[in-house]
Amino acid sequence: QVHLVESGGGLVQAGGSLRLSCVASGQSFPRYAMGWFRQAPGRRRQFVAAIRWNADTTYYAESMKGRFTISKDSAKNTVYLQMNNLEPEDTADYYCAGAMRALTAVTVQDGLQYNYWGQGTRVTVSS
User: Are 86 and 15 in contact (CB under 8 A)?
Assistant: First the structure.
């Protein structure tokens, strides 16, 4: 069984920063990419960013470019999401996900392509 555990969420003022972490544990699984998604109350799940596990290729939702940075530490089985200049609109539950199959720059943004999900960590940005 694969476990993805997110941490690092919390309450921050607009303009502040947070770094989310996602640690993968349990059964080893061949992963093509790890991604971050978010879901705000009453809204659909939204792609945030993704990173190829065996390459340095990263993908971002357009609205996150320049503010969010995804990175990984393969030795620690951990993927990070550095979020800067946070806005109240960034308030959401943030989820880490792992994809086993090869994805394109388009399909990497589709949550249905991911095989494993964490339980989420809540980010609240106050104005």
Answer: yes
